[in-house]
């Protein structure tokens, strides 16, 4: 499948956008007119740069308000178009997007529009240009693709075809199935955009909230399947207007975009299994997804070894050993939970979750899939005889490793730490319940797409949690059997609060245990100061859940928090924060499926008071 | 009018919110339950703090899902309520907000709801509490205030009344006029929130996009007038759920909120002129607004005197003189434009627009109005015999001075610079055309309210301008005769681009002139390097406007930009940026009313290339 991206999706200069698109692996770009207008590079220089980068200039866009106008205006439009055709000749671009008229349309007559498109087509043909007519969702007279197609058919000109944009079709609720009836040679271009289902006016929705395929709620596989069945074999291009993308680093946006297309391509190929049509668009398959069965390890990188190991010990971990060749790396174990502590950093480096190891069936396949999805592999060295760890960087820089499922017992790499014991069956802690990762707000969609496409984690309904410095969006990603739960916390933009945000929205590792009371008592005995929970909270708890006062007093004694849903109960406590990481210990009773979200404001407020204390 | 604010409007801890509300001048607050739950302060401590701060605890909120439920659930609700009544007794709060049921409503029967509210009222009465029942816009069975009122009337209990919230009424398009028919003693509480007219679902609209009265599109004066006519005399309280407010500094949000109420109070009082009802709510008037007739001066504060005065000279300014007592202050003049250059800062201080002087009829009245609107006065010293300058800080920290209109000739303060000459009638530059001020995105609403309420500038329709690092919202504020034009530019949040944003979205002073070609030639002669405009722009200009090529060549020779609307033409050029300021020189031909917005992307791209050059 030929992949393309409109320059309007990306931040920076036209030249920066082109470099980023090429580096991410796109085959071509759409040149957005304004990006060229504000560039000091001549069209010939852009053409040469594209050639050097191996990028096609697949489309020039947009040409607006061409048709449905009175004759004198149409004459002016022809003149305006001719200047653009000459420019396109200098660029070496042969397809121009013509949007249905929104500003100057006066004549609501298909014959007139077709005739004007025909005459524009004559002029285009003189310059070797083809016109791709697109029905904007808010076009004055033409706002659906079937209407645009009828006009193009009426125009009956070799140089006049259509452009199909998933947003303009799906946002209006038009049925995309009739695409299959369109003659393939009349589809000159295809643009893809996904979007969350928002109840707002379609123009604002389109201008600000489009996302890459797979990041929204539209059926993009279904849409592309219709195009495949129609026999389309041209570029499939991303055209995304999104406020966050406009501000984000151009290289990561480009990578995010290419990932979305590769994933869509793979899913569409699978959806069309057995249909010969899919060969026409040359849909490529990805290696199969290898859903993780659990956490193999968590790596904490810290400049403060003493504080970190003290906290681990307080939580019940024992030192498993030191790595045989990596001098500053040790492992702490408790039951099936393994925390690698990496002290190979400066003393003042922040304490952070540096890496996650996921148990998968076949690490090689998982890595292959991830790199095909444009994830960057983690460079790693090992001594002869040591385990090879395969991993990639997540969008936030966390290293994601694919580790072979150990079957019974402990993973082989523990041997490198001299830690070859069996699992302790009596351990209070029985696993990693979840790991909460903080994400910058402008990379939220990218993170969700990464974990969905690379690890087949599914996004659960998102929730807003109020904190003292703004709303925090909590987006849980989960494997199908819930063995892996990964809540992503998206902190507010918070220009004002500056560095405080990092400390107020730290990441955390939540440990599952069978007896949180015993775990809390042990932690207290070992000197751990739990995050304090206010008296008011416990009074509210009694009122809210009609709980027994003695039970609540027992919670309060240990700073335990409580939640309940229809299927069970949730008891948990938090530690203080080291750098940007803290720990939580949770006990699920019955089938409780949540994460104690009603208690998150208590935690956020307590953390805020610790980092920001005045008043 | 008694002013109140819900703690949910503000960021920080409950204690911080209370301090900020008191400091801004509110009479009371609504205690949002969750703010109390997460606080380590006991209810008695909050009560004492409120007393110390002179704040009333006007409302406890919210109590949810009380009514329209089956008997067994209602029994649990009574128990839940009693715990809250006891808590309110400890707080010393006597009114509780009861929202119409959204989660557990099962019985759609007014009699049942009334009977349950009556029984809840009995229990409340035992604790000296009153219940204010509010129809949420998305209530399951009760979503309009008239329905809520009918149920309250049916309940017929001294301790059961209503709470009227402008958002819940106006967002649904309910006619607020029937408020006047409600018995005043049954209106227990009033909450005000304004909102921009957005086409989205009402729950998201309410939770994220409420703004203070005067910052949105609702008719708040009309709404408050109905309450006044009903005879309401209780607190008027702000309840605003807004993502930006949640993140903003708590003190400035509180000030913004109080300003909105004071301004609303004044406008409502004027709207009700002659109606005796207004005395019941004790609506206070503000001093009359003094609309500015022009710019008296612009003050640039800079650590780089040489660069700044060189640029001013290149633009045609002459040194008017040095201040007699302020050693590091000089004035540069050109026709009626006066730029005060203040060098009384460190050498590495950024060059910035520090102050604006506006010509008004009566500076004392203007200052009095501004301070009554919670603006902080600028502290200033002067020697005996020197002019007293009266001013306040705008939300972004710019000093806004109110200067007496000089009639003919030059203002008296110029004498302090030894510059008592007459105006130069032959000056190319004829005034300040506009001043473009950069605003952090989270204070956009606050800035608009400030300039509207203090200086009677009116907000024009906002526009989004695409730049290489995101969309910039351009919000023009304008006096009624356009003598003062103040576009506010709201830069994207742009966490990623960091410090670059300050340089990429600088402020600017635009000078009006009668001959921009002559001004550009003079500037070139004096060595000014104008902001470069790409060749592609001029080629596009010819295509877009069908302009004469020779004319466009003459523009290009001088890096002039061009725009046209139905009423005239606009020619302009930009200088490079000093610190966070640059200059623009504009010539308006005919009745052109805009600001060259289509050319802003060219400028943003050129500035981006200068500060961020790679590729």
From TrEMBL, chains A, B:
GO terms for biological process: 3,4-dihydroxybenzoate biosynthetic process. Pathway: Aromatic compound metabolism; 3,4-dihydroxybenzoate biosynthesis. Keywords: Carbohydrate metabolism, Lyase, Metal-binding. It catalyses: 3-dehydroshikimate = 3,4-dihydroxybenzoate + H2O. InterPro entries: DSD, Glyas_Bleomycin-R_OHBP_Dase, Glyas_Fos-R_dOase_dom, IolE/XylAMocC-like, VOC_core, Xyl_isomerase-like_sf, Xyl_isomerase-like_TIM-brl. SUPFAM superfamilies: Glyoxalase/Bleomycin resistance protein/Dihydroxybiphenyl dioxygenase, Xylose isomerase-like. A divalent metal cation binds at residues 134, 165, 191, 239. One of its GO terms (molecular function) is metal ion binding. Transmembrane segments: none annotated. Its cofactor is a divalent metal cation. PROSITE patterns: VOC. Residues 294-405, 431-576 form the VOC domain. It is an enzyme of class 4 (lyase). Its EC number is 4.2.1.118. Mg(2+) binds at residues 434, 508, 584. Catalyzes the conversion of 3-dehydroshikimate to protocatechuate (3,4-dihydroxybenzoate), a common intermediate of quinate and shikimate degradation pathways. Belongs to the bacterial two-domain DSD family. This is 3-dehydroshikimate dehydratase. It comes from Kocuria sediminis. The lineage of its organism: Bacteria, Bacillati, Actinomycetota, Actinomycetes, Micrococcales.
